[in-house]
Design brief:
Blueprint: H1 3-14, H2 18-21, E1 35-36, E2 55-62, E3 77-81, E4 84-86, E5 90-92, E6 99-105, H3 114-127, E7 133-139, E8 143-145, E9 153-154, H4 158-166, H5 176-187, E10 195-201, H6 212-220, E11 224-230, H7 241-251, E12 255-256, H8 261-277, E13 279-283, E14 292-299, E15 307-309, E16 313-315
Parallel strand pairs: 6-7, 6-10, 10-11, 11-12
Antiparallel strand pairs: 1-8, 2-13, 2-15, 3-4, 3-14, 5-13, 7-8, 7-9, 14-16
Length: about 325
C-alpha cells in the first residue's frame, strides 16, 4: 500500500464512528496541506487599538425558560464601562455573518472521538449563516492551519470544510494554549465585525510554550468570544474543565462538557443558534489608559425577567502592553 493509501486506512480506523453520525460525508478527496504556524504566533504581542476602533460586545439575552430573546430594540440596552454609562454607537440584532475559528484537538488521545468531533463541526456549519467565515486550526505537538494558505472558508461551502476536517489525524501531545493564541491572531484577519473562537479538546495542555495567563490576557485584549467544549473521559488525569470555564467566562462565551456524541452535536447546534440570535453592541472606550475596564450591560424590560450574558471586561488601548 502506498503512502496515501496507508494514510487513508488510518483515517478510516480513526473515524469508525462517522457512518453513524455523519452518513452524508462526500467521498474523501486528497487532504489539504497542513500549514505550520510560525513560532512567533505563540509569543505575546503588543495590543494597541486605533482611536477609531470600538469595544465590540457580544450580548446574549435569554428568558426565564432559557429561550433566546432576539427582538429587543436598541433603546432597551444600557452599557456601563467602569460604572460610567457610555453611548451605544453600534447595534445589531440581525442574523449577520461572523468570523469563526475552529480550534480542534488532534492529539493521540482523540483517536476514538475525532469522528464525533468532525460530525459535530459539520453540524455547526450547517446550522450557521452560510456567509460565515471559517478557518480551522488543529493542535497536537504544535498548531497548524488545516487549510491551504490559511484561507477562510464559507460555512455554506461544505465540501471545503469536509476536506479540511478529514485531513486531521490524531497523534502526539496537546498544545492548546499555542493554538488559542494563533486562533485569536488569525481572527483579526477576518472581515466580519463579530469574532468567534470554538475550542474542542479532551485533555489538559502538555506541549504549549504559551501559558494560560498569556492566553487569558490575549483574550481580554481582543473582541473575540470563546466557546469551549470539553469531551473528557471520567478517568482522565489531565482534564481541567476549570480552564475551559475561565476561557469562556473571560470573553462572554460558554463552556460545554458533553459526555457522549449526541450532547456534543447539540452543543455545536446551540452555539450556532446563539451566535445567530445574539446582539452586537459597540461603543468608543471612554479612556485609553491601558487598564482593564469592567463592562456591564443592562436591559430595560420592567415586565420581563431576562438574563444577559456578555464579556465582563476588556483591556483598553494605551501605553501599557501585555507581557
Amino acid at each position: 500500500m502506498g503512502k496515501n493509501g496507508g494514510r487513508m486506512g488510518s483515517l478510516r480506523r480513526a473515524h469508525t464512528f462517522l457512518p453513524l453520525l455523519f452518513p452524508f460525508l462526500a467521498p474523501i478527496l486528497p487532504s489539504p496541506t497542513l500549514l505550520p504556524i510560525s513560532a512567533d504566533a505563540s509569543q505575546q504581542p503588543t495590543f494597541q487599538s486605533r482611536p477609531s476602533e470600538l469595544v465590540v460586545l457580544p450580548v446574549v439575552v435569554t428568558d426565564k425558560r432559557g429561550q433566546f430573546v432576539a427582538d429587543l430594540d436598541r433603546d432597551r440596552f444600557v452599557v456601563y464601562d467602569n460604572g460610567r454609562r457610555v453611548p451605544i454607537e453600534l447595534f445589531s440584532n440581525e442574523d449577520a455573518p461572523v468570523t469563526v475559528g475552529l480550534v480542534i484537538d488532534t492529539s493521540s488521545s482523540m483517536r476514538k472521538r475525532l469522528g464525533e468531533v468532525i460530525a459535530a463541526t459539520m453540524r455547526f456549519a450547517s446550522s450557521s449563516h452560510p456567509q460565515d467565515e471559517l478557518f480551522v486550526i488543529r493542535f497536537n505537538d504544535d498548531a497548524r492551519y488545516a487549510v491551504r494558505e490559511r484561507q477562510f472558508l464559507l460555512a455554506g461551502d461544505r465540501g471545503d470544510l469536509e476536506r479540511a476536517m478529514m485531513s486531521l489525524v490524531p497523534e502526539g501531545r496537546t498544545a492548546l494554549y499555542d493554538a488559542l493564541i494563533a486562533g485569536l491572531d488569525h481572527l483579526e484577519a477576518g472581515s466580519r465585525a463579530r469574532k468567534i473562537l470554538i475550542a474542542i479538546r479532551d485533555g489538559g495542555d502538555n506541549a504549549s510554550r504559551a501559558s494560560l495567563d498569556r492566553v487569558l490576557q490575549r483574550a481580554r485584549a481582543s473582541n473575540a468570544t470563546i466557546y469551549t467544549i470539553g469531551i473528557f473521559a471520567d478517568d482522565d488525569p489531565d482534564k481541567n474543565p476549570g480552564v475551559l470555564k475561565s476561557l469562556a467566562h473571560t470573553t462572554g462565551g460558554e463552556r460545554f462538557l458533553p459526555r457522549t456524541a449526541s450532547p456534543l452535536l447539540m452543543a455545536c447546534e446551540q452555539i450556532a443558534r446563539e451566535i445567530r440570535s445574539g446582539y452586537t453592541i459597540g461603543y468608543t472606550p471612554p479612556d485609553r489608559d491601558g487598564n482593564y475596564h469592567r463592562v456591564r450591560v443592562v436591559v430595560d424590560t420592567p415586565n420581563r425577567k431576562l438574563t444577559i450574558r456578555t464579556r465582563p471586561g476588556y483591556f483598553a488601548a494605551g501605553s501599557r502592553t501585555q507581557n
